Amino acid sequence: MARAHQPGEADFKAILPEDIDWKPFAAFPPSARLAVLVGQPSEPGPYVVRVKVPHDVKLMPHRHPEDRIYTVMSGVFYIGLGETFDGSKVEAYPPGSVIVLPGDTWHFHWAKSSEYVTQVTAIGPLGLEYHDHADDPREQHRQSVRSKTVLDPVSHRTIPPADEVGRKR
What is this structure's pTM? Predict the structure, then answer.
């Protein structure tokens, strides 16, 4: 008796590096990218995604409800555990490393030495909660929209609307 296939896994397929579709992800800093390779992370079931983070970008303390397996594809992946970012507590993992991260574990990432790419394998739905809501790019976006300010993608600082620039307070 044949077993039922998982969503998106009924047919043979291969994904070549040049075919990976990197996209912004609202819960990441603006310069980070995510690519969905297998499954639908927002739905129950297995999924595989890749995460690309440019040099010196930090993902502040956050957690995921799902257990995750990270495979370092390129660069050096720096990860630390805890509710507060501490650059002295990150561990460096070179390409080929596999990291098992239990769900609900507070952790943080830093592209300390160069851009890195990790592959994440998990069972969805994907969740991401920042320890400090002010670190959540989704919250920064909501605040920006409410106040009509713009978030500078490089400095991560808010820029006042044009009609307020130069206004005396």
Answer: 0.81
